[in-house]
Amino acid sequence: MSILWAILVATIAIAATALMVAYNKKQKTAFHNNLTLCRKNVPDALRQINELTAFQHRFSETEEKEFTQTYKELLETSESILVSKYIAKANVDVESIKDFVAAYKGIGALREQNNKLYDTLAMIANTNQLADAFTEYTSILTAQSYLTESRKNEFTDKYSSLKDVLELSFKHPELLDAILSIGKGFVTELQLHDFCNDLNRIDELKKEKNQEYVRRELEEKAPYFHSVLKYPLSSQQRNAIVLDEDNVLVISSAGSGKTFSMQGKVKYLVEQRHVSPSNILLVTFTRKAAESLKERINMEGVTCSTFDSLANTIVANATGQKPNVCDEKNISEYVFNQLLEDSNYLKAVTDYLLKGTINSEADVDDTQQLVEARKNADHRTLLPCMDGQVVFTKSEQERIIADILAANGVKYRYEQNYEYNVATLEHQQYKPDFSIYFTDKEKITLTDTNGNTHTETREVEKRIYLEHFGVGIGGQVPKWFAQAGESHQEATKRYTDGINWKRTLHREKGTVLLETSSADFQMFGNAEVEKRLLKMLADAGVPLNPLPPQTIARMINEANPQRLRSVKTMVTSFISLLKGSCKEMESIIIDIEAEIINYSPSWVDIVNKKEKKKQHNEFLQKQRDLTILEKIIRPYYLLYQKKLQEANQKDFTDIVVQATEHCLNNPTKRYDYILIDEFQDMSIVRYKFIQALRSDTPYKTKLFCVGDDWQSIYRFAGSDISLFNNFADYFGFVEECKIETTYRFGEPLASLSSDFILVNPLQKKKQVRCLESAHTDMTCHPYYYEKRPSKGIVTNVAKVVSQILYSIPQNQKVYFIGRYTFDVKTLELPEDGFRVSYRGEHFSVLHNGREYPFLTVHQAKGLEADCVILLNCNSGTYGFPSTIEDDPVLSYVLSESDQFRFAEERRLFYVAITRSSKHTYILYDGKKPSIFLEQFIKAEQPTYGFCPLCKQGQIVRHQQRTIWNGNIMIEYRCSNSRYGCNYKNIEWINQRPFRQ
Question: Can you give the pTM of this predicted structure?
Answer without folding.
Answer: 0.74
